[in-house]
Amino acid sequence: MVLRLKDFIKKIRACKTAAEERALIARESASIRTALKDSVSSSHRHHHVAKLLYMYMLGYPAHFGQMECVKLVASSRFADKRLGYLGIMLLLDEHSETLTLVTNSLKNDLNHPNMYVVGMALVTLANVASEAMARDLAPEVEKLLGSSNSLIRKKAALCAVRVLKRAPDLHEIFMPRARSLLSERNHGALLAGLSLLELLYAQQPATLIEFRKAVPSLVKALKQLITTGYSPEHDVSGITDPFLQVKLLRVLRLLGAGNATATEAMADVLAQVATTMDGSKNVGNAVLYETVRTVLAIDADSTLRVLAINILGRFLAHKDNNVRYAALTTLLATVQVDGNAVLRHRTTVLECLRDPDVSIRRRALELASALTVASNVRVMVRELLAFLDDADAELRPTVVAHICTAADKFAPNQRWHLDTLVRVMKVAGAHVRDETVAQFVRLVTNAPELQAYVVRKLYALLKTDHSQAGLVRAGIWVIGEYGDLLVQPGAAPAPDDAEDDDNGTTDALRSVALDEDGPNEAEVVALLERVLTAANSTVVTQLAITALMKLAARFHEPAVVQAIQALLARYRTSMVLELQQRSVEYLNMFNLDPELRRGLWECMPVMDLACPPTQVDRARRCGAPVVADLMADLLAMTGAAPAAEPKMGTAKAIVDPLDLLMGGPVPAIPSMSTGSGNAIDLLGSAPTPASASPAIAASTPPALFADLAHTVMAPAVRRASLHTGPLVPSAASTGPSIGGYDVPHLAYESAHLLVQLTPTSAAPGIIQVNATLAHRGGVNVPVTDLQLLVAVPKSLKLQMGPLSATRLGVGEVGAQTFRIANPGKVSPVKLRLKVVYACAGEGVDKVVDFRFPESVV
After folding, report:
1. Which three-class secondary structure state does DSSP give residue 656?
2. Total Cβ atoms within 10 A of residue 458
3. CATH entry, 745-851, from 3.40.50.720, 2.60.40.1230, 3.40.50.2300, 1.10.230.10
4. Which residues form a coiled coil (predicted)?
5. What is the crossing angle of helices 150-166 and 171-181, to 10°?
6. Per-residue pLDDT reduced to its tens digit, 106-137
7. Cβ-Cβ contacts under 8 Å for 502 (sequence gap 6 or more)
8. Which of 58, 119, 453, 701 could be cross-linked to 669 through a Cys-Cys bond (beta carbons 3.0 to 4.6 Å apart)?
9. What is the pTM of this model?
């Protein structure tokens, strides 16, 4: 006796354990296999296949029933065909070899007089059609698109979508029928026809010209939908067929883009939808959202665009997070089209910065940054600074970057610009990029009337808090340069004017007490001593001892100078070679004449606010290696003419203000001896190794000046040396280094690209790696889609920064920074790099293994 499906399901549900269920399935599967081997009647085959499909839906194997499904499809009974087609859709896919046996049955059923049989064949073909099957049955599908039955036309249109996906070259067959479907009155057939139109446009954009003739009929259909009263058959939450309305709006967006005639034809109905649609429910919001996207995509007039943007403004106040996020994303894309209309909703956008949802806060931050212009920069930056106080750690780097970018582009005056950067460094100094600190230094050197104000402001802030890395670096540099203004009596802070009362800073910054008389020399040195004691970075220590040496040349109290000497003497035995060398050389300078020492430590000249890499590019275009020339650079920055022109074949290196802060290996400096009385000779020169070549020996700098130039020249020379063609040891790599630190290491080289990694010690157990990616110029074609991916062993932790540029022109340089946490001091540190880019039509995807020297831990 054959067990019927109903009884089989009851037995399955009666099983108390999974093991009992598996045993029952195994017994029934064996029984079905045995029965199928024998010749069974059609009714028994129907029951067996039905049970197999139920087993399959429970997750058990049922592939042995595929041929029985094919036999059922060939049956003349409707029930057998229905179950057979269901089994084919479940058990087979387009790659199954058994599917070829179904093609003939499908062809016969597509011509069947029964509309339901035709419908089943179309649904099956739309789900499992392979390329060969699509080509064989495309004529039948095309013929059914002209059927008098709307149900058949709808299913034929959906089947045609599958056929075109598998065989795109058949689009010519379906074009006439697709145009006729756009005049359908049946909602289902029209919806399927619109889907077919979208696919035809995606595969053949030229077909859009033909379909634009149907714009009036589509506009008429949309108008009927929004003006028709209640229709039980199509009503969804009080709106007539919102699915069709959304699809119509999408197609109108395609047809109206870039065409004034089509835009004019649909403008009225779009305005009608925007003004009459109920936005209290999610269904209405979906239609309104598509309307807004359509209005913004076509060449609509300003009134209609303002109406669309106002709808997005209402979305921003919606309680649903998804609606608000969609509105923010659309407004962000609209800023470039109609920024003034978006600015009207600035207050609502700023309120979204305090939303509990982090995705909305992030999108609102991007939109607020895009809305910042010169006329509202004070208000926008003030709001962003307030947001920065409470921002999550993961958002702070982004907020800092947006604030600094806005300040650099739209600062109304220097005072406001400096106050804004100081406020950012005070609140989130750990997230401030090196470029921001360098920009702050350049601004200070270009504002002599504000130098006294800035140095006292930073001094007061460092007295209360020196935990923010960016603030500490900027403060040390400014105090070292302008310490004489800090202790000078009567150097009052820059007066506040009415315009600066709304400069984006907060009361916490303005409340910093600025003593009119300023601190005395001993208090300044005591502050730097506290910074040295708390320093957890070699860079900060380097900056602090250099600042102390500058102050020793400008302060006059003997006790203070002796205290500075004592502080410098602490590092004569430092385990960090760089600090030890600086300490010894600085202490030796106290034996010089005070006037000579004061001349050596004069204030830095005014720095160019322009980006220094452009000057390096000019040197590279000369076609010669970049040679560091300290005195020539200093003269160039002050506008003075150099004493002598450089020799042919050389180009001056550029002083990068960031390098002044961060430090780096020293390049070679040409000798400037003019006689036995040269001041450099008084300090003593480093001996030249006997094995050095004459060219190198001639340009070896004195040991003292090599160290003084250490922070000024190295990174600029390193960057420039990447463009000089073949790899040769640069001057930067021959300077003193700490066991592999601060030295560029070649990681990857090809005809197109060069990748170098420079490790620095950020903190004990923390390695900061600066990756430099340079276009080699092997071909005169830019490198595009550039990516640098890094992987480390499980014992290490990796934090990646963004790549500065994904496209590099010939000779251009990109940079990327990442940090490696090595708490176990594993040596050597191993990396696996993946370099991905495209150049000259060729895609490159290379994986390379790299290891630092064992001293880099």
Report:
1. coil
2. 27
3. 2.60.40.1230
4. none
5. 150
6. 999 999 999 999 999 999 999 999 999 999 99
7. 378, 379, 382
8. 701
9. 0.63
